[in-house]
Write a structure and sequence with these properties.
single chain; about 400 residues; alpha/beta; 8-stranded mixed beta sheet; 7-stranded mixed beta sheet; 13 helices; about 25% strand; monooxygenase activity; FAD-dependent monooxygenase; monooxygenase
Length: about 400
């Protein structure tokens, strides 16, 4: 089998499927490839912050997510030491709710949206290699079932995750990276209050996120150095962390039951890879990954996709325009994500400083500042705009 497309997208989850949706709607012939068989779950914190939900609305996909019965999240609480913040992120394009749908639902919705937009979707299709003309990527060698074939494309999009095969085949260098900071365990629990809650203590972070069918994701983060010690009893570690960090939540869990197996990871990498090259581009976790503790992965994948498609526009088949567009995407991607990346590393250190606690105490006394803080967490408020002159004056006076 040999065929030619404008774009081949490798990976059909939260970066790949939206890329296929938008490029197909732009009039390009798109092939979307996925190694797994849909529907299928994957490791995920599930949360789509307000900027990501606003993009789902813009793409016309939000009604399908809402139709799954996933509860809207319009309040969040954050407890650390003697400080408790309760509030909500600002609205983005009229959207003030977050959502946390199960991934086997969300990913299937996005893949179907790609098909509905005109893309061709093939799951259970593994990219074995890329094809080249000199240093330019020209397509991919694919295995579907027992059949191997080559597809050609003007652009190959690597949306195949942190361990991206596309990135490996083009030898995309890591531009910079930081050490792993946390490991994490989570599962789903019944009969808990449908609330988004965060609890922090030295060396520990616990959160709950409501999702489909009355289930709540309960997760705990630990210092990376403890992973070898904890991996023999991840569930015990999770329950002990909840007891220590959020005892009220632990008591509530006694009234429910565990709904799914335990999920865990010690591979919380923090890096930016080179995003583009001749005939190829990386989006989502393939090009940039950070600790999941701030649950920004899905939202930031959506933002990258929209940026990429905006940069490409109608210039895919003009080699010079495409090259400029990809380079523009690479620069703007880094500018868009770097501050959130640094803030995530600070959170993942699991050690709130005295200065941070003083700041949180000030914020807790103001509904406006609390919502601004949660807006920074969601990405609705740019992090470099969070520290207003008024807040700096308050800090200086303490």
């Amino acid at each position: 089998m040999n065929d030619t497309y404008d774009v081949v997208v490798v990976g059909a989850r939260v970066a790949g499927s939206p890329t296929a949706v938008l490029l197909a709607r732009a009039g390009y012939r798109v092939l979307l490839l996925e190694r797994g068989r849909f529907p299928r779950d994957t490791l995920s914190t599930l949360l789509i912050h307000q900027p990501g939900v606003a993009l789902l609305k813009r793409w016309g996909v939000l009604p399908r997510v809402v139709a799954t019965g996933c509860p809207p999240i319009d309040r969040v609480s954050y407890t650390v030491a003697d400080v408790r913040l309760e509030g909500c992120s600002w609205a983005v394009d009229g959207v003030r709710t977050a959502f946390a749908p199960r991934r086997y639902l969300l990913d299937s919705i996005l893949a179907q949206a790609a098909v509905d937009s005109g893309a061709e979707f093939r799951d259970e299709s593994t990219v074995l290699d890329l094809t080249f003309d000199g240093d330019r990527v020209t397509g991919a060698r694919v295995r579907s079932g027992g059949t191997e074939y080559t597809v050609r494309a003007t652009l190959v999009v690597g949306a195949d995750g942190m361990r991206s095969r596309v990135a490996a085949k083009v030898d995309a260098p890591v531009e910079f990276e930081d050490p792993r900071l946390t490991c994490a365990y989570y599962t789903y629990w019944s009969d808990l209050p449908q609330r988004f809650r965060l609890h922090e203590a030295p060396g520990s972070w616990v959160g709950t996120i409501p999702t489909n069918e009355g289930a709540t994701l309960v997760g705990a983060y630990f210092p990376q150095r403890r992973f070898g010690q904890l991996r023999g009893d991840g569930l015990g570690a999770l329950l002990a962390a909840v007891q220590h960090t959020a005892p009220e939540l632990r008591e509530q869990m006694d009234g429910g039951r565990m709904l799914d197996r335990l999920h865990g990871t010690g591979d919380q990498r923090n890096f930016f890879r080179k995003a583009v090259g001749p005939g190829w581009v990386l989006v989502g976790d393939a090009g940039h990954h950070k600790d999941s503790i701030t649950a920004r992965g899905i939202t930031d994948a959506f933002r990258q996709v929209q940026l990429l498609v905006d940069c490409i526009g109608d210039g895919l088949h003009d080699p010079q325009r495409l090259s400029r567009a990809l380079n523009r995407f690479a620069l703007q991607r880094n500018d868009m994500l770097i501050t959130g990346y640094r803030n995530t590393l600070t959170t993942a250190a699991l050690a709130a400083s005295k200065h941070q606690l003083e700041l949180l105490r000030l914020i807790a006394g103001s509904t406006e500042l609390t919502d601004r803080y949660f807006s920074m967490m969601s990405g609705a408020c740019p992090a470099d705009e969070f520290l207003t002159p008024e807040l700096l004056d308050l800090l200086a006076s303490t």
